[in-house]
Amino acid sequence: MRPKKESAMIFKPQLFHGEAPTVAEENPTEATLEQRVADALASTQGTGAEGLRVVASGGEIFLFGTVSTRDEMDRAVEAALTVAGVEKVTVRMETDEAP
Questions:
Q1: Which among 3, 40, 67, 68 is least surrounded, fewest beta carbons within 10 Å?
Q2: Is the pTM of this model over 0.85?
Q3: CB 40 within 8 A of CB 82
Q4: CA–CA separation, 87 vs 75, rounded Å?
């Protein structure tokens, strides 16, 4: 009968392609989230971002201001929802269109 080999656990430093792993910001600050949404609005065609104000409260984004059309408002909401960390968009916008 063979004698039992004693085994030991060896822990190596965690590396990813030779670099220490980093964690992406899981809960961005409200200011960071506001800036990311503002950037998304500015880069979305057909959205007049210059007339909008973005306010974050947790994962909720509030959009304030005036846009030309209801379609423009819808595009602004869709753009805001594409940003990581945005859970909900509350619209406080007006349109130049007749009711």
A1: 3
A2: no
A3: yes
A4: 16
